[in-house]
Design brief:
- The structure is a single chain.
- With 275 residues, this protein is of the alpha/beta class.
- 28% of the residues lie in helices and 24% in strands.
- The protein has helices spanning 35-47, 62-68, 95-102, 131-135, 160-170, 196-207, 224-229, 256-271; strands spanning 16-19, 50-54, 72-75, 80-83, 86-90, 110-115, 118-122, 139-140, 152-156, 175-180, 183-190, 214-218, 232-236, 248-250.
- It has an eight-stranded mixed β-sheet, with helices on both faces.
- Helix 4 links the parallel strand 7 (118-122) and strand 8 (139-140).
């Protein structure tokens, strides 16, 4: 699906602004929202805009939540949705689906399984967990509690593209992202319906905002699902595969603040009482 050309940027309330995290609201693998973006978001919230964070991470850093003060947060590529701090939806694998996903045949792959109780990893012999896994208290997959649901699985391996192709044939209802530039050696698998487009739809409905009144910001392939259905889509960065789905583009997280200030200017002017 490609976006229609020259869609006007929204300039009136109601308005829902939805942001991917890494590479969009914050630099890749960062934790801090740039100061200019924080100021612009505060101004937009003050004007009445609603804010959502929709990320592939299983949790948004507390610093980001404090800075953005979102009305809604979706994690696990949209599989887990919170509205005003309350759990609204959580997608889970069935036992059969999880068994198929973990039967990957990727020799020496690093596999991370995300469950409500935390992170569990299956690592090649002699490989230590990465620093971010240690920080999150990762445990061996063999220690995962029996019967606990799985919310997301991540694979790190040069052959993830071939595995993703096989899985799309055998289990086409599952959601696969990555396994292509810029994440050629990383694959995320989430349950059916656990994608950012579904999350955006649920959040808009929950906040009483029509999809036509949404503006989304994203930088990678897992953002396509929400860019396609939003009222207005903004690509952050230069990834070619996003260009057909975007109405506008900013160069990166550091350029987001000025873009949002301009949006606030338009909103403020449109909402000002006539004199």
């Amino acid at each position: 699906m490609t976006r229609p050309p020259e869609r006007p940027r929204p300039r009136r309330l109601p308005l829902l602004l939805a942001f991917d995290l890494d590479g969009t609201l914050i630099p890749d693998l960062g934790r801090e929202v740039p100061a200019a973006t924080v100021r612009a978001l505060a101004r937009l919230r003050g004007l009445g805009a609603r804010v959502a964070v929709i990320t592939g991470r299983d949790a948004a850093p507390p610093q980001v939540l404090e800075a953005a003060q979102p009305d809604a947060v979706a994690t696990n590529n949209g599989g887990r949705v919170e509205l005003q701090g309350e759990l609204h939806r959580e997608a889970r694998f069935s036992e059969d689906e999880l068994a198929a996903v973990l039967a990957h045949e990727l020799e020496e792959a690093r596999v991370v399984v995300f469950r409500p109780s935390g992170l569990y990893a299956e690592l090649p012999p002699g490989h230590a967990p990465e620093a971010w896994m240690v920080e999150r208290g990762v445990r061996p997959l063999a220690q995962a509690p029996a019967g606990e649901p799985t919310l997301k699985v991540g694979f790190y391996h040069p052959g993830v593209a071939d595995f993703a192709a096989r899985l799309r044939v055998s289990h086409p209802h599952l959601v696969l992202t990555g396994a292509q530039p810029p994440y050629s050696e990383f694959l995320t698998v989430t349950p059916a319906g656990a994608h950012k487009g579904a999350a955006l739809t649920l959040i808009a409905q929950g906040l009483g905002v029509e999809l036509e009144r949404t503006v989304v910001f994203g930088d990678s392939d897992n953002d396509v699902a929400m860019l396609e259905i939003a009222g207005y889509a903004v690509q952050v960065g230069h990834l070619p595969l996003l260009a057909p789905h975007a109405d506008d583009r900013v160069s990166g997280p550091q350029a987001l603040g000025p873009y949002l200030e301009e949006l606030a200017d338009r909103l403020e002017a449109a909402e000002a009482p006539a004199t």
